[in-house]
Amino acid sequence: MIKIDSENKIELFEKVVQTVFEKLNLTGDCFVEVDFVNEEEIRTLNATTRNIDKVTDVLSYPALEEIKPFTRDNYPFEYNLKTNSVNLGSIVICESVAKSQAIEYGHSEEREKAYLFLHGVLHLLGYDHMVEEDKKEMRKAEEMILESIGITR
Hints:
The chain has about 150 residues and is an alpha/beta fold. The protein contains five helices and five strands, in the order βαβαβββααα. Strands 1, 2, 3, 4 and 5 form a five-stranded mixed β-sheet that branches. α1 (about 10-25) links the parallel β1 and β2 (about 30-35). The radius of gyration is 15 Å and the shape is globular. It starts with a strand and ends in a 5-residue tail after the last helix.
Protein backbone atom coordinates (compact mmCIF):
# COMPACT_ATOMS: atom_id res chain seq x y z
CA MET A 1 0.00 0.00 0.00
CA ILE A 2 1.09 3.62 0.29
CA LYS A 3 2.89 5.55 2.98
CA ILE A 4 2.11 9.26 3.32
CA ASP A 5 4.55 11.83 4.66
CA SER A 6 2.20 14.39 6.14
CA GLU A 7 0.92 15.13 9.60
CA ASN A 8 -2.33 16.51 8.18
CA LYS A 9 -5.21 14.22 7.31
CA ILE A 10 -3.17 11.00 7.28
CA GLU A 11 -6.17 8.74 7.89
CA LEU A 12 -8.28 10.44 5.22
CA PHE A 13 -5.47 10.35 2.67
CA GLU A 14 -4.70 6.69 3.42
CA LYS A 15 -8.37 5.88 2.81
CA VAL A 16 -8.25 7.76 -0.50
CA VAL A 17 -5.12 5.91 -1.62
CA GLN A 18 -6.38 2.50 -0.53
CA THR A 19 -9.41 3.11 -2.74
CA VAL A 20 -7.20 4.30 -5.62
CA PHE A 21 -5.18 1.08 -5.37
CA GLU A 22 -8.33 -1.03 -5.23
CA LYS A 23 -10.23 0.71 -8.05
CA LEU A 24 -7.21 1.04 -10.37
CA ASN A 25 -5.85 -2.45 -9.61
CA LEU A 26 -2.47 -1.19 -8.37
CA THR A 27 -0.12 -3.38 -6.36
CA GLY A 28 3.04 -2.96 -4.32
CA ASP A 29 4.15 -0.28 -1.90
CA CYS A 30 4.79 3.34 -2.72
CA PHE A 31 5.46 6.58 -0.90
CA VAL A 32 3.94 10.02 -1.51
CA GLU A 33 5.21 13.19 0.09
CA VAL A 34 2.45 15.71 0.90
CA ASP A 35 3.16 19.29 1.88
CA PHE A 36 0.69 21.97 2.92
CA VAL A 37 1.85 25.47 2.04
CA ASN A 38 0.62 29.05 2.05
CA GLU A 39 -0.35 31.10 -1.01
CA GLU A 40 3.05 32.74 -1.38
CA GLU A 41 4.82 29.37 -1.35
CA ILE A 42 2.52 27.73 -3.90
CA ARG A 43 2.69 30.78 -6.16
CA THR A 44 6.49 30.64 -6.08
CA LEU A 45 6.48 26.90 -6.82
CA ASN A 46 3.99 27.37 -9.66
CA ALA A 47 6.09 30.17 -11.14
CA THR A 48 9.41 28.35 -10.87
CA THR A 49 8.26 24.90 -11.96
CA ARG A 50 5.46 25.68 -14.42
CA ASN A 51 6.13 29.32 -15.43
CA ILE A 52 2.64 30.24 -14.22
CA ASP A 53 2.91 33.15 -11.80
CA LYS A 54 -0.31 32.69 -9.85
CA VAL A 55 -1.70 30.95 -6.80
CA THR A 56 -3.14 27.47 -7.40
CA ASP A 57 -4.75 24.81 -5.23
CA VAL A 58 -2.54 21.76 -5.82
CA LEU A 59 0.69 20.88 -7.60
CA SER A 60 2.02 17.39 -8.34
CA TYR A 61 5.58 16.36 -9.03
CA PRO A 62 5.79 12.78 -10.35
CA ALA A 63 8.93 10.79 -9.61
CA LEU A 64 8.22 7.98 -12.09
CA GLU A 65 7.92 7.93 -15.86
CA GLU A 66 6.07 4.62 -16.04
CA ILE A 67 3.59 3.05 -13.65
CA LYS A 68 3.89 -0.67 -12.93
CA PRO A 69 3.62 -2.70 -9.71
CA PHE A 70 5.51 -0.84 -7.01
CA THR A 71 8.16 -3.44 -6.22
CA ARG A 72 11.93 -3.37 -5.75
CA ASP A 73 12.35 -5.50 -8.89
CA ASN A 74 10.40 -3.03 -11.04
CA TYR A 75 12.04 0.07 -9.53
CA PRO A 76 15.52 -0.91 -8.31
CA PHE A 77 16.82 2.68 -8.32
CA GLU A 78 13.66 4.33 -7.00
CA TYR A 79 13.06 1.81 -4.22
CA ASN A 80 13.67 3.19 -0.74
CA LEU A 81 15.05 0.52 1.60
CA LYS A 82 14.17 2.56 4.71
CA THR A 83 10.47 2.72 3.84
CA ASN A 84 10.36 -0.49 1.75
CA SER A 85 8.50 1.44 -0.92
CA VAL A 86 8.82 3.29 -4.20
CA ASN A 87 8.72 7.10 -4.26
CA LEU A 88 5.69 8.01 -6.40
CA GLY A 89 6.31 11.74 -6.12
CA SER A 90 5.24 14.85 -4.24
CA ILE A 91 1.98 16.72 -3.83
CA VAL A 92 1.75 20.31 -2.61
CA ILE A 93 -1.62 21.65 -1.41
CA CYS A 94 -2.37 25.27 -0.59
CA GLU A 95 -4.39 25.06 2.60
CA SER A 96 -6.01 28.50 2.33
CA VAL A 97 -7.12 27.86 -1.25
CA ALA A 98 -8.58 24.50 -0.17
CA LYS A 99 -10.55 26.27 2.56
CA SER A 100 -11.89 28.97 0.23
CA GLN A 101 -12.79 26.45 -2.49
CA ALA A 102 -14.70 24.34 0.02
CA ILE A 103 -16.80 27.40 0.86
CA GLU A 104 -17.18 28.35 -2.82
CA TYR A 105 -18.28 24.85 -3.84
CA GLY A 106 -20.49 24.36 -0.79
CA HIS A 107 -18.88 21.27 0.66
CA SER A 108 -16.64 20.43 3.60
CA GLU A 109 -12.99 21.30 3.86
CA GLU A 110 -12.35 17.57 4.37
CA ARG A 111 -13.96 16.82 1.00
CA GLU A 112 -11.91 19.53 -0.72
CA LYS A 113 -8.61 18.31 0.74
CA ALA A 114 -9.49 14.71 -0.14
CA TYR A 115 -10.29 15.82 -3.69
CA LEU A 116 -7.09 17.85 -4.07
CA PHE A 117 -5.00 15.00 -2.69
CA LEU A 118 -6.72 12.49 -4.98
CA HIS A 119 -6.26 14.83 -7.95
CA GLY A 120 -2.55 15.01 -7.13
CA VAL A 121 -2.22 11.25 -6.76
CA LEU A 122 -3.88 10.68 -10.12
CA HIS A 123 -1.41 13.09 -11.72
CA LEU A 124 1.43 11.11 -10.13
CA LEU A 125 -0.08 8.00 -11.72
CA GLY A 126 -0.09 9.59 -15.18
CA TYR A 127 -3.58 11.05 -15.40
CA ASP A 128 -3.95 14.50 -16.94
CA HIS A 129 -6.62 16.96 -18.02
CA MET A 130 -5.00 18.96 -20.82
CA VAL A 131 -7.32 17.56 -23.51
CA GLU A 132 -11.05 16.97 -23.08
CA GLU A 133 -10.92 13.17 -23.43
CA ASP A 134 -8.22 12.88 -20.74
CA LYS A 135 -10.10 15.34 -18.54
CA LYS A 136 -13.27 13.22 -18.71
CA GLU A 137 -11.30 10.08 -17.80
CA MET A 138 -9.64 11.81 -14.85
CA ARG A 139 -12.90 13.33 -13.56
CA LYS A 140 -14.63 9.95 -13.83
CA ALA A 141 -11.86 8.33 -11.76
CA GLU A 142 -12.01 11.14 -9.19
CA GLU A 143 -15.77 10.88 -8.73
CA MET A 144 -15.72 7.05 -8.60
CA ILE A 145 -13.05 7.02 -5.91
CA LEU A 146 -14.57 9.78 -3.77
CA GLU A 147 -18.02 8.21 -4.03
CA SER A 148 -16.58 4.82 -3.05
CA ILE A 149 -15.33 6.23 0.25
CA GLY A 150 -18.47 8.25 0.89
CA ILE A 151 -17.06 11.70 0.23
CA THR A 152 -19.63 13.62 -1.71
CA ARG A 153 -20.34 17.25 -2.49
